[in-house]
Design brief:
alpha/beta; Protocatechuate 4,5-dioxygenase, Chain B; six-stranded mixed beta sheet; 11 helices; globular
Length: 305
């Protein structure tokens, strides 16, 4: 993939440099910004990073025009987790529910796509102990939660398939609360932080911009709406500055917030991943372009400082 003079390999190479770096947004041409690494307290040495992944369309595993291989590039640069706790935009409940399935079903929660997509199975083992511990941690933090069996929706199994294709890492899913705000999901992530000291990677899966009504499925990548870059630039500058208050207030402060997210559910998982991160997290950005005019594909890694 070539993006205004930046090849995919150049985009990938920013991932773990010794400064935070905001990547050039492919097809839009915004300018890179470097922010010095925080010199705050050192996090637990064995703490895993938390992630936010833009999982794109369900066709990501089968459409060669989409950047599916880059998820494998990302996972190769990360420590291997003993288990994953996944929060997907596609499982919403009134209160948090953690899935205790020992063999989670691959849920094909979409319609009208190619038949081969419905034939994909992701037979990863479940992580019921992780699910029960997550529910307990939430309860200890004053967030009422429960645990019960549930499968993996496409917001969970699609990125897991691309990052861990052997399906040998146990995974549990935790629901989001679409009617609750960013601050609630940040608190959820904060309650789960200690899981990452014990080999569990907390991953939020959604989309950094998500307005299907504004999408143009015939658009070329270079036809991206420039307002996408204005929103993602603002968001990433606040991430790099550790400006949590502004991020939680993105509905009022971010440019074009209502256009980029008519509803919140695809952005809420990033706040859980951010809450699970160390206070002085390092930030790495994998920018994979903007598709269908309005859907930015950007992944964030919140590492130890």
């Amino acid at each position: 993939m070539h993006t205004h003079g930046f090849t995919t390999s150049v985009t990938q190479s920013i991932l773990f440099q010794p400064v935070y770096q905001i990547a050039v947004h492919p097809y839009i041409g915004s300018n890179p910004i470097s922010v010095p690494r925080s010199r705050g307290r050192v996090a637990a040495m064995n703490r895993l990073p938390s992630l936010f992944l833009s999982h794109g369309a369900p066709t990501l595993p089968i459409d060669p025009s989409l950047p599916s291989a880059e998820f494998g590039v990302l996972s190769a640069q990360l420590p291997r987790p003993e288990a994953v706790l996944m929060l997907s935009a596609h499982w919403g409940t009134a209160q948090p529910v953690a899935s205790t399935s020992t063999a989670p079903e691959t849920i094909h929660d979409f319609y009208g796509f190619p038949r081969q997509l419905y034939e994909i199975q992701y037979p990863a083992p479940g992580a019921p102990d992780v699910a029960r511990r997550a529910a307990a941690l939430l309860g200890e933090s004053g967030i009422l939660a429960s645990a019960q069996p549930h499968g993996l929706d496409h917001g969970a199994w699609v990125p897991m398939l691309l990052m861990f294709p052997e399906a040998d890492i146990p995974v549990a899913q935790l629901s989001i609360q679409p009617h609750m705000d960013a601050a609630h999901h940040f608190r959820v992530g904060r309650a789960l932080r200690s899981l990452q000291d014990d080999g569990v990677m907390v991953i939020g899966s959604g989309q950094i911009t998500h307005n299907l009504r504004a999408a143009d499925f015939s658009a070329r990548p270079e036809d991206a709406d420039p307002r996408v870059a204005e929103f993602t630039d603002w968001f990433e500058e606040k991430l790099a500055a550790h400006d949590i208050d502004a991020l939680l207030d993105y509905r009022r402060q971010a440019p074009h917030a209502a256009l980029m997210h008519p509803t919140d559910e695809h952005l809420l998982p990033v706040f859980a991943a951010l809450g699970a991160a160390d206070d002085d997290y390092s930030l790495a950005i994998q920018s994979l372009g903007t598709y269908q005019r309005s859907l930015a594909m950007t992944n964030y890694v919140f590492g130890t400082a």
